[in-house]
């Protein structure tokens, strides 16, 4: 099977939305995405200035990564919004390949840092830790419900 990593474009939006629902409506997230809400979220990310994203294909779309660059006072950083791999294909290196492609691209763009939000103490945190990410000592996540 031929592996391909291609730029995430609107051509892949519907397939990525279906995958998003499949992944995030199951353990450990158990969220309640519909195709329409997932598609709207990914459409927003795709149309954010500074967007960078890739899809992983092997006969079919198996995963994607997406986020956007933000200019800071001295350098650019990247907010990794989503990384998503079909549940039955996880732990086979697809997420790592997507992350490596992303990092290669961001390095060429002179981005100096990546940040993201994820559930703590779970599979996702373990994945990011394995790839050199660490909990920030300087930033906290704050929320207000209303």
Write up this protein.
Residues 3-146 form the N-acetyltransferase domain. This is N-acetyltransferase. This protein is an alpha+beta fold and 146 residues long. The protein has a single domain (4-130), classed as Gcn5-related N-acetyltransferase (GNAT) (Aminopeptidase), CATH 3.40.630. Helices cover 32% and strands 27% of the residues. It is built from four helices and five strands, in the order E-H-H-E-E-E-H-E-H. The protein has helices at residues 13-24, 35-46, 94-108, 123-130, and strands at residues 4-7, 51-58, 60-71, 76-85, 111-115. It has a five-stranded mixed sheet, with helices on both faces. Helix 1 packs across helix 2 (35-46). The longest helix has 15 residues, at 94-108. The termini are far apart. The relative contact order is 0.15. The mean pLDDT is 90.
CATH topology: Aminopeptidase
The CATH superfamily is Gcn5-related N-acetyltransferase (GNAT)
Task: Name the helix and strand elements from N-terminus to C-terminus, one letter apiece.
Answer: EHHEEEHEH
From the coordinates shown, what is the CATH architecture? 3-Layer(aba) Sandwich
Number of strands: 5
Radius of gyration, taken over Cα atoms and rounded to an integer in Å:
15 Å
Give the termini separation.
49 Å
- Fraction of residues in helix: 25-40%
Average residue pLDDT: 90
Task: Return the CATH class.
Answer: Alpha Beta
Largest sheet: 5 strands, mixed
What is the number of domains?
1
How are the strands of the biggest sheet laid out side by side? 1-2-3-4-5
Overall body shape: globular
Strand proportion:
25-35%
Helical region count? 4
What structural class do the secondary elements suggest? Answer: alpha+beta
């Amino acid at each position: 099977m031929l592996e391909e990593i291609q730029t995430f474009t609107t051509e892949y939006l519907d397939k990525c939305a279906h995958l998003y629902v499949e992944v995030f409506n199951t353990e450990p997230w158990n969220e309640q995405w519909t195709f329409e809400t997932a598609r709207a979220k990914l459409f927003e990310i795709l149309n954010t200035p500074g967007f960078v994203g890739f899809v992983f294909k092997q006969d079919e779309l198996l995963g994607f990564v997406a986020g956007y660059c933000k200019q800071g006072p001295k350098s650019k950083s990247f907010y990794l919004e989503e990384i998503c791999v079909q549940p039955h294909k996880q732990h086979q290196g697809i997420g790592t390949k997507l992350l490596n492609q992303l990092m290669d691209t961001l390095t060429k763009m002179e981005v100096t840092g990546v940040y993201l939000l994820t559930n703590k103490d779970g599979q996702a945190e373990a994945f990011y830790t394995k790839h050199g990410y660490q909990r920030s000592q300087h930033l906290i996540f704050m929320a207000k419900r209303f």
